[in-house]
Amino acid sequence: CVMAPRTVTIDLEAAAAERERLRTKYLQIPKTRPKSTAQGVHHLALLCSDVENTIRFYQELLGFPLVELFENRDYKGSTHLFFDLGHDNTLAFFDFPDLGLGPYAEVLGGFHHLAISVSREQWDAARQRLDDAGVATQIESEVSLYFSDPDGVRLELIAEDLGSLYGTPLH
Q1: Closest by CA position to 143, among listed 170, 169, 163, 161
Q2: Most buried pick, 62, 64, 93, 130, via CB within 10 A?
Q3: What is the pLDDT of residues 115-152, one digit of tens each?
Q4: Residues whose CB falls within 8 Å of the CB of residue 45, separated by 6 or more in sequence, listed in order
């Protein structure tokens, strides 16, 4: 199972009330919401333990073409590689050989998962390739396919158009 179940020890009614308070205070309707100052995600940089294994996983299993690979300018001997995620977005990786990095761990302020929009046809094809490769997957809401890469990075392929969530436009 990719997303481990946990025992709920919080007051669910209080949590719902807090979400409503925050929604009321901060969430603006699209007509009054200011335009973002950002242009989009240039790249998200993650760590990998094996460059070739990472290339095979992301390019061959997921269908994200490798678009660049070079020595990391900040750490000699380290490789920096980029995959095309469509819509002018890239997913980057570094390997940091000889630093003795530990396995993935979920920490406050850390990375939880990356959700990547794909068509239903690509979702189905990726699910089959992952199943054939023996990668454990979890399906939620019939549109979200969760799994982990070889280094434990949690990913979600979501059969949903960019800018919407479960059929509701976000913009």
Answers
A1: 161
A2: 93
A3: 999 999 999 999 999 999 999 999 999 999 999 999 99
A4: 92, 93, 94
CA neighbor of 102 nearest in space, from 45, 44, 47: 47
Closest Cα partner for 84 from 99, 69, 101?
69
Which of 77, 89, 83 has the alpha carbon at shortest distance from 55? 83
Give this prediction's pTM: 0.81
Instruction: Look at residue 29 and tell me whether its pLDDT is greater than 90.
Output: no
Count Cβ atoms below 10 Å from residue 83 Cβ, excluding itself: 22
pLDDT of 139: 97
Contact 106, 112 (CB under 8 A): yes
Q: Which pLDDT value is given to residue 170?
A: 78
Residue 136, token pair as written in the block: 């454990």
Q: Do you know the residue count of the chain?
A: 171
Residue 111, pLDDT > 90, answer no
